[in-house]
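User: Sequence in, structure out. Go.
Assistant: Echoing your sequence, followed by the structure tokens.
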Amino acid sequence: MYPVDGGTLVTGLDGMGALGDPNDPQAVQAAIRIFGSEAEVIAAESHDGVADPFARGARLSWPPGWAAGVVEELARPEGLLRFAGGDVTIEGGGYIEGAIGSGQAAAVALAATIA
């Protein structure tokens, strides 16, 4: 949630398509009522990352068990090159938290290598 002039901006993900029409403020308001919120939705807007020709996809969502052993290989250093991001970590994978943690770990590892 981000404070903005006259209210609060709330962002969210609906990877399952359960929301119905994410551009419909009434549908979004009904969905947030599930969490007990009394917020009034003034506007709603969505972005389809899968249909976006520049993104060509959305956040990573692993099937159960798929990441075991694969993530370590994706993040394996190559010389001084380190790989980091939300898609090369198990903890927080697919989210900004994973990208931040992965970036910090890669920076620490690189610093130790070049020190």
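User: And one key feature?
Assistant: The CA atoms of residues 65 and 90 lie 11 Å apart.
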